[in-house]
What we know:
Blueprint: E1 2-7, E2 10-13, E3 18-26, E4 33-39, E5 46-51, E6 57-59, E7 67-72, E8 77-82, E9 91-99, E10 102-105, E11 109-114
Parallel strand pairs: 2-11
Antiparallel strand pairs: 1-3, 3-8, 4-5, 4-9, 5-6, 7-8, 9-10, 9-11
Amino acid sequence: QVQLVESGGGLVQAGGSLRLSCAASGSFFSIYAMGWYRQAPGKQRELVARITSGGTTNYADSVKGRFTISRDNSKETVYLQMNSLKPEDTAVYYCNAQWISNDYWGQGTQVTVSS
Length: 115
C-alpha cells in the first residue's frame, strides 16, 4: 500500500513557475513508476509526465520543454517543476504510483494560471 500526498499547487500568473511535490509513504517507493496527471473542468484526466524506476522520463507534448519531472528516492518524493505556465495548464494535478497491477493516486492539488 502506498499513500501519496501532493503539495505546491496554487495561483500563479501566466509565465510564472510552480513546483509540485508528491510525498509517498509505504513500501518500496523506488520500484514504482511515478507520474503526474491533470484534469481540467469538463475534460478527461491526462498524463503530464512520468518517470520510471530507472529514471526514464516522458512528457505530454503540451508541456515538453516547460515541465520537468524528477524523483528523490531517499526522500520518497517526486517533483514536477513547471515553468512558463499558461492558462491552459489550469487543472487539478494528481500524483500516481504504478507497479505491475498496483496503482495508487493522491488527492490532487489545484493549479490555477491567470492570464
